[in-house]
Design a protein that fits this description.
Helix content is about 50%, strand content about 15%. It is α/β, with parallel strands linked by helices and about 220 residues long. The strands form 2 sheets. Strands 2-6-1-7-8 form a 5-stranded parallel beta sheet, sandwiched between helices. It has a 3-stranded antiparallel beta sheet with strand order 3-4-5.
Length: about 220
């Protein structure tokens, strides 16, 4: 029997960082939904579809199977039996993933693949609608958040470490606007599942958040 953990929350709350570390500590599979969309994009490109061909892409997507495996602790993305990890991050693939991910049939197919993966393996997924839509029956649901001020501070620190300029007020405003868009969108809005544990990480570091979530696992 597989064990599933769903982590939802607003942008900049540290969901992916926490989910990846938690998955490594627990030997779970971290489901990188972005990488799965990119694998589907490779399939569409190889089939010769233009990004705007919603009809063709929607019809063909049923023939694409994407799964995630780990080899020596490194994530490998498998498309119809082929490891496509080395070519996931090209600009062409990114552009196709961005365009095709909005199509209803593509999202529905990926949902099916994600649920199939969760049914067979111990997984951790993070996003905006994991606990409410993707894995409504997850064994543990976390709603991870932090104040917009703290999320902006973290983002500024991240940019400064990369040697880039960071405008705190602009970043904070962008975060608050994204929060509003994510929570008011028509399809799969950001919201806390009724049975999710609310976890504010504003005053916690990464290790403290990970340990707190571990304490909730039954």
């Amino acid at each position: 029997m597989s064990y599933n953990i769903a982590i939802d929350g607003p942008a900049g709350a540290g969901k992916s960082t926490i989910a990846k570390k938690l998955a490594k500590d627990l030997s779970f599979v971290y489901v990188d939904t972005g990488a799965m969309y990119r694998a589907l994009a490779i399939f569409f490109i190889r089939k010769g579809f233009a990004a705007e061909d919603e009809s063709g892409i929607s019809d063909a997507v049923k023939d694409a199977n994407v799964s995630i495996e780990y080899v020596n602790g490194e994530q490998q993305v498998i498309l119809n039996g082929e490891n496509v990890t080395p070519i996931l991050r090209t600009e062409e693939v990114g552009n196709m993933a961005s365009a095709s991910s909005v199509y209803k049939a593509v999202r529905a197919h990926l949902l099916e693949l994600q649920r199939s993966l969760a049914a067979s393996k111990d997984v951790i997924m993070d996003g905006r609608d994991i606990g409410t839509c993707i894995l409504p029956n997850a064994d543990l649901k976390i709603f991870l958040t932090a104040t917009s001020a703290e999320r902006a501070r973290r983002r500024c620190e991240e940019l400064k470490q990369k040697g880039e300029n960071a405008d705190y007020e602009k970043i904070k405003k962008d975060i608050e606007e994204r929060d509003y868009r994510d929570s008011h969108r028509e399809i799969a809005p950001l919201k806390q599942a009724e049975d999710a544990i609310y976890l504010d990480s504003s005053d916690l570091n990464i290790d403290e958040v990970v340990e707190r979530i571990k304490s909730y696992i039954k």
